[in-house]
Design goal:
Number of helices: 7
Helix content: 25-40%
Distance between the termini: 25 Å
Largest sheet: 6 strands, parallel
Order of helices and strands: EHEHEHEHEHEHEEEEEH
CATH architecture of the largest domain: 3-Layer(aba) Sandwich
Shape: elongated
Strand order of the largest sheet: 3-2-1-4-5-6
Number of strands: 11
Strand content: 25-35%
Mean pLDDT: 86
Length: about 220
């Protein structure tokens, strides 16, 4: 995927490194020129020096062709302005923003940001979800991003089809709780003998450290 990140601080750098490892095409927008050179040398990616709240800078970063735009500076106001420009002016496909102050998360969502979260780990997981065959949706973040509630739709070729939770007891990561299964619009409270089927919607609560392993489990195909 083509991903544009606004903000080249430590958070932006770490996120970019993680996404590059996932074989995505990543570009960073950063205002500080010395930092731009450092990022370009360290990550070996294109870095655009400029203010991401300005239209021409976003244009130069190729925002029109980006699959995802992420505003992740340490200034929530700048993140919101850039996210709104990306969404409303350029029609970006997916816009994510980091709220340094968790109290700003809801404001960002009301003003049109697709996903506004206070946890960098959740941002990375949301991006990784775009490349997964499993239909995944973040329903809520808990305890200031330290945990999340997610919904998974098991694909038609799911490797979990026909397996009970007892069968998966050794595969379900620690820090994960499967709280419900929805099948044909009926709610099932899962027990050990509950057998999963393709097309099931599985709702899970997971700690931050367990989320990537949970995504891998739910996206397994036969």
């Amino acid at each position: 995927m083509n991903i544009v990140i606004m903000g080249g601080g430590k958070v932006g750098q770490n996120l970019a490194r993680r996404l590059i490892d996932g074989r995505n095409r990543v570009q960073i927008i950063e205002q500080d020129r010395a930092r731009c050179a450092e990022l370009a040398n360290t990550l070996d990616i294109e870095v655009i020096c400029g203010d991401g709240t300005e239209i021409d800078v976003l244009e130069n970063a190729g925002i029109r062709d980006a699959d995802i735009f992420i505003a992740i500076t340490d200034n929530d106001a700048d993140n919101l302005v850039a996210a709104q420009l990306a969404k409303k002016y350029f029609g970006a496909k997916k816009v994510l923003a980091r709220a340094n102050d968790p109290r700003n998360v809801e404001t960002m969502r009301i003003l049109g940001v697709d996903h506004a979260v206070s946890s960098t780990e959740i941002l990375a997981n949301l991006i990784e979800q775009e490349a997964r065959p499993t239909d995944v949706q973040l329903l809520a973040s808990l305890n200031r991003g330290r945990a999340q509630i997610s919904s998974f739709i098991l694909p038609q070729n799911s490797a979990l089809h026909g397996k009970s939770l007892n069968d998966l007891s050794g595969s379900i990561p620690r820090g994960v709780l499967l709280v419900s299964v929805v099948r044909a619009e009926k709610l099932i409270i899962p027990r050990g003998d509950t057998v999963l089927q393709r097309g099931d919607e599985v709702i899970a609560v997971s700690e931050e450290s367990s989320q990537r392993a949970l995504y891998r489990l739910m996206s397994q195909t036969a």
